[in-house]
């Protein structure tokens, strides 16, 4: 073991684990990148660190400054941790529909939390636009702009992708995950393609997002809905622009929940619904590529961040989810 030189050095270099149940279901090897092992317990710590370092290098962020961001929660948590370590303040704007655990965590980290009602991106009250206005009005502040700041993508091109390539001993056939900002799938895709152009990069989109239809048919169009937090996109962000997507899947919340519950019951992994979406997509990609293939996906964050929602019996009943102790039957969507 090595000793980290500072707390920010703890971001990245997360473990990779073979997932037994998904591997058996796919007929090949499915691996999960354990991003819940980051200090802020999510993949968004990586983007947060690169966004802050980029702002410092550009001279936009100076000692005592403030970082402002609109986020579904995890990027805000990552930014607050990085800001604390670097001596900055944070103002986080978040839809008021996100989990209570995310809100409580941000407040515990000392961030100023601004909650807004959910709104379409075209609405000036959307959390992203609100955060931009606050940054413009706050002296010494920078707007992180995670959706269109390609420092986000860079974190995965030179970080996550390189780690995966080395951990997989240079033998990987496919990678898939969902898109929120697009930084993870675009950055990992670009990084892996630089090592091996034949690696298949697949988008796994939740219902309610528009990217599945875009990559399949060339038109941004959403269908259905999802309660998964932090993923799903209705536009081509700067981070998504040029993403090397070879194929695409769309997965329901039921398919995601099936894998969340199986991984918890059978393998002791407590994950969020976005990780379930990713695992469902990895199984679909594995079935498509065939036996003997090696597929990697992202385990985005910890399920402990959703104890009041996904792991709460009343919440599940209100959203039409089966009880936590119900028998598990794989939904047909997971086999698409």
TrEMBL record:
Pathway as given in its UniProt record: Amino-acid biosynthesis
Keyword Transferase in annotation: yes
Span of domain Tryptophan synthase beta chain-like PALP: 10-301
One BP annotation, GO: cysteine biosynthetic process from serine
Molecular function terms from GO: transferase activity, transferring alkyl or aryl (other than methyl) groups
Keyword Transit peptide: yes
UniProt keyword annotations, A-Z: Amino-acid biosynthesis, Pyridoxal phosphate, Transferase, Transit peptide
Cofactor(s) this protein requires: pyridoxal 5'-phosphate
A Pfam family per the record: PALP
Domain of life: Bacteria
Official protein name in the record: Cysteine synthase A
Species, as recorded: Sphingomonas lacunae
């Amino acid at each position: 073991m090595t000793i980290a030189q500072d707390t920010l050095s703890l971001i990245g270099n997360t473990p990779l684990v073979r997932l037994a149940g998904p591997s058996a279901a796919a007929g090949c090897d499915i691996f999960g990148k354990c991003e819940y092992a980051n200090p802020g317990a999510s993949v968004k710590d990586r983007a947060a660190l690169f966004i802050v370092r980029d702002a410092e290098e550009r001279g936009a962020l100076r000692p005592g400054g403030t970082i402002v961001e609109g986020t579904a929660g995890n990027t805000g948590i990552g930014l607050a941790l990085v800001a604390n370590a670097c001596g900055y303040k944070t103002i986080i704007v978040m839809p008021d529909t996100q989990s209570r655990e995310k809100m409580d965590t941000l407040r515990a980290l000392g961030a100023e939390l601004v909650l807004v009602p959910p709104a379409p991106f075209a609405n000036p009250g959307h959390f992203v636009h609100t955060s931009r206005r606050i940054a413009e009005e706050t002296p010494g502040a920078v707007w992180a702009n995670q959706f269109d700041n390609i420092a986000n993508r860079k974190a995965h091109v030179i970080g996550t992708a390189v780690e995966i390539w080395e951990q997989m001993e240079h033998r990987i056939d496919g990678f898939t995950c969902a898109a929120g900002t697009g930084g993870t799938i675009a950055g990992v895709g670009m990084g892996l393609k630089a090592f091996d152009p034949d690696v298949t990069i697949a988008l796994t989109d939740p219902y309610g997002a528009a990217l599945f239809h875009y990559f399949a048919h060339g038109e941004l169009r959403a269908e259905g809905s999802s309660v998964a937090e932090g993923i799903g996109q209705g536009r081509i962000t700067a981070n998504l622009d040029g993403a090397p997507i070879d194929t695409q899947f769309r997965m329901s919340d039921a398919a995601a929940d099936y894998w969340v519950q199986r991984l918890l019951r059978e393998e002791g992994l407590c994950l969020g619904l976005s990780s379930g979406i990713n695992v469902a997509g990895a199984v679909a990609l594995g079935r498509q590529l065939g036996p003997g293939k090696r597929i990697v996906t992202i385990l985005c964050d910890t399920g402990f961040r959703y104890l009041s929602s996904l792991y709460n019996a009343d919440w599940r009943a209100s959203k039409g989810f089966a009880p936590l102790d119900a028998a598990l039957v794989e939904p047909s969507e997971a086999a698409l």
